[in-house]
Amino acid sequence: MQTDLVAALDIGGTKIAGALVDDHGRILLRAQRPTPAREDGNTVMRAVEAVLGELTAAPLWDRARAVGIGSAGPVDASTGTVSPVNVPGWRDFPLVERVRAVTGGLPVELVGDGVAMTAAEHWQGAARGHDNALCLVVSTGVGGGLVLGGKLHPGPTGNAGHIGHISVDLDGDPCPCGARGCVERIASGPNIARRALEDGWRPGPDGDLSAAAVAAAARAGDTVAVASFERAAQALAAGIAATATLVEIDIAVVGGGVAKAGEILFAPLRRSLRDYATLSFVRRLTVAPARTGTDAGLVGAAAAALTRDRDVSPL
Fold this sequence. Notes:
Blueprint: E1 5-11, E2 15-21, E3 27-34, H1 41-56, E4 64-71, E5 75-76, E6 81-82, H2 95-102, E7 108-112, H3 113-124, E8 133-138, E9 142-148, E10 151-152, H4 183-187, H5 189-198, H6 211-219, H7 223-247, E11 251-255, H8 263-276, E12 286-289, H9 296-310
Parallel strand pairs: 1-4, 4-7, 8-11, 11-12
Antiparallel strand pairs: 1-2, 2-3, 5-6, 8-9, 9-10
């Protein structure tokens, strides 16, 4: 017996990926285009349409029953629009309406990319079996999403759980979002590298200025590099503990490029969490690395569409 499929889109500043996904989270067909992020909005949309065109042209498309979109944000699911910071041509862009037109009027579920990653981790990854979870993407920015009461909780606009813009340093550096001392301003990859450079770290002969290079230096014992990761871990711990205190999550799953630093990040994160998650009902909170990898956006977008379609978790 052939099962229904969902179409998934994972839209970021670098690539636009699409897939047809079954109800076990298996990707049966893929398509991808570079994101023309510096072009006008319609040019970006043509890249989305090219990805969807590959999917709709395939024989498997006849089994597609819904579309899930995980997009760089901000997104607004209540209006079906997106305004990704890293795609300036899209401001209040009517993405849901345009995708619906290309896909023959299929139902479309839009969530932020952090929420999509959360859906993937709850369905297939480290948050599986947890009814209350926070999942974080720590990369160029810091995003996240929530599972509450066993269900994905995207919130009215699809942005709930966006931990990157919790302020954890009231007099801290201004954040591009307009606030001060946000988690993202301290813990994102570019800010880990910026702080290390400001404090005296210097890259190797290859000139690599990335957070991955800082992590490699930390592994080699560079004290400035270690300190920059410890500061990032402290900010993440404060944000995670605040979220746990508010909604009683029992696990925080951390993914994204910065999480690839491994114990350089996770060891100080666990230590700092003990300093912030002090109340009795959050002391059992655990932290785990994400498991769904580079397909998290696609699998999570599919999970979000399945959740909406059935009003249940796809587990």
